[in-house]
Design brief:
flavoprotein, single chain, 5 helices, NADH-dependent FMN reductase, Flavoprotein-like_sf, Rossmann fold, oxidoreductase activity, globular, about 40% helix
């Protein structure tokens, strides 16, 4: 079982801090799991312009391949200017629309205000619906008040919601396995 923890930003550390308890929980509670931490700031990203995936640089090819091979995803994103970062949208534009079909996705977001959680509903979920992902219903949103001055996640309620989200994610992984006969092999499509 190959799980991608996708940190969908080029800057900051709060999304990384939010992914950390999820990674710990998954490692402690699932045997035979491979966790692939994808942090976009460690990649030489190219602007997606419609060319075939094999024409991008090695980092982009590796990123596309890692995402398309995964069995499930936990996506962490900040909210910038009332939306998801362009780098994250660029990644979605790079992968096949068939790649994430019937695969589970959990969402984590960090924003500057209480209202920024609406970006999940109005921007991120529609993109994931387009991919026909199995989106877990309990995303986790945090704001600056949940972190210390040095950007450590300190809010126990948020930590508990991350664990609960991880538990539901595992159930969705099981459901995704049951639906695997309905997935399309993107190499043949």
């Amino acid at each position: 079982m190959n799980i991608v923890l996708l940190n969908g930003t080029l800057t900051g550390t709060k999304t990384e801090r939010m992914l950390s308890p999820v990674e710990t929980y998954l490692k402690e509670n699932v045997s035979g799991i491979t966790i692939n931490n994808i942090n976009l700031k460690h990649y030489n990203l190219q602007f997606v312009d419609g060319r075939p995936p094999e024409e991008y640089n090695d980092d982009m090819k590796e990123l596309i391949s890692s995402i398309e091979r995964a069995d499930g995803y936990v996506i962490a994103t900040p909210v910038f200017q009332g939306g998801i970062p362009g780098a994250l949208k660029n990644v979605f534009d790079a992968i096949s629309p068939l790649a994430m079909r019937y695969k589970p996705v959990s969402i984590i977001a960090v924003g500057g205000t209480l209202q920024h959680h609406l970006v999940i509903e109005n921007q991120l979920k529609p993109v994931l619906d387009y991919f026909r992902c199995l989106i877990t219903p309990n995303y986790v949103y945090a704001h600056p008040g949940h972190f210390t001055e040095d950007k450590q996640l300190e809010n126990e309620e948020v930590k508990n919601r991350l664990i609960e989200m991880s538990q539901i994610f595992l159930r969705y992984l099981e459901m995704g396995r049951d639906l695997s006969p309905y997935r399309v092999d993107i190499k043949k499509a």
